[in-house]
Amino acid sequence: DGGITQSPKYLFRKEGQNVTLSCEQNLNHDAMYWYRQDPGQGLRLIYYSQIVNDFQKGDIAEGYSVSREKKESFPLTVTSAQKNPTAFYLCASSIDGQETQYFGPGTRLLVL
Amino acid sequence: KQEVTQIPAALSVPEGENLVLNCSFTDSAIYNLQWFRQDPGKGLTSLLLIQSSQREQTSGRLNASLDKSSGRSTLYIAASQPGDSATYLCAVINYGGSQGNLIFGKGTKLSVKP
Questions:
Q1: pLDDT of residue B99
Q2: Computed from CA positions of residues A53, A3, A98, B83, in that sequence, does the dihedral angle turn out positive or negative?
């Protein structure tokens, strides 16, 4: 089955800890994205990548980092510098930067 | 700065009713507009994508229209069903903006009652 997978479904972070959210796609898409969704808010772009080994900051990149070493994978690290990390995180991919984006099932991050 | 607004924030209708969801955007220089559906605690499902040169797109009981000059889009759902209950999100990509940067509205939460 082609699609986007995210893991884990739920993730708990302790104070001062870095955590990494996984995003994998087997759609052969060049572009991948990370969004954050807060209750009552629209989605906001954290980082995006148009091609392997290249990525760009979105609107709310502070406190986050990414890598794009493989076409299929775009992991997001929530660092200890992100003071309000509790949110629903969504990964997406598209053939290129202008076409329909396909979303994964999301990871809910909670702070202990 | 592009802003996307969706009205109403929530809508409850009886089963079988035809309904319209509204989306407006402040900058008409968009590349395309997309409508998504989100079920509680789930990711987004793409419903329809309208290129800036198009006026409407249809898929089954869904019809989305785009009026770029007035900064408006509507999503029409015919013969609504309880399974249509979800949050519907509208998003645009700007010309000249960050590649692939979808700018989202806050969504309309739809409840279709049997």
A1: 58
A2: negative
